[in-house]
Amino acid sequence: MRGTLFRYVVGAYVRYTLGILAGVVAVFLVVDFVDRAKAYGGEGWVMDVLKLYGYKALVTVQQLGPAALLLAAGTTVSALRKKGEVTALRSLTFGPAALYLPVGVCALVACVGLVAFDETVAARAGRRVDEITTQRFNRWGDWRMYYTPKQWFRRGDSIFFLRGGNPQEGFENVSIFTLTPEFKLRRRVDAGRMRPVEGTRWELTDVVERTFTEDGRTSVTQQPAAEYELGVGATTFRIRPGRPEQMRLGELGEQIVARAEVGLATKAFQLAWHNRFAYPLAGLPAAPGLGRGAGVRS
Fold this sequence. Notes:
single chain; 298 residues; alpha+beta; 6-stranded antiparallel sheet; 55% helix; elongated
């Protein structure tokens, strides 16, 4: 009998969860479309909007999933109570666990599923939303904040200004500033190109090196090419553009380490890493409790 009751409550909870999730996602997408409708236009815009909102629906499922789990818990128990089934269970000496245990098990499975869904589907869908919004409908918003390549880096007493290029092929039009412990400029090296050689050694071409002494004198040397020991390898500059919430866990962990090494902010990436688990799992402890508070008493 307990198994039958467990399956019955699970079935009711799943139905309400799916119904509520579909409803809140639909409401969100309709409101979002009405709010942004003026921005959509051009040849073939209808198909592009359908693609855009298809990806937005996937992102919204992840965002509203925990709320749907909470609402479904209260709705399930309230519906059973309204039918008199809660009273019947109490008369058969079933305690509150007969209802909130199935709800808790379902919430646990759903929360773990949301973590995996975010990691494999929602993050990728979020990137596609940004791509379609910017490239097709020319709405940039805060896109530049996350996708503009980083150019300033700091490692130890050196500050690097890398205006172009990448760690694999090298950088172009670079400036390297060496500071004293008192944060005064000791040396500045400008180069047309900086290419990794081995380890932490780099080859610089079209080099202009300026050295500044404590008494205010400056010396300048020029070389067509020279190798420098800079104390950083090519992998140190593996900074990836993009929103942290749209990266996978491995990428987030890599970016946290890489950004900390070169003096860039990491809090947003650390928050995104923890939220990958904390946000979906927020529905787990609350769902059984909400269901219990909706009307089941021992």
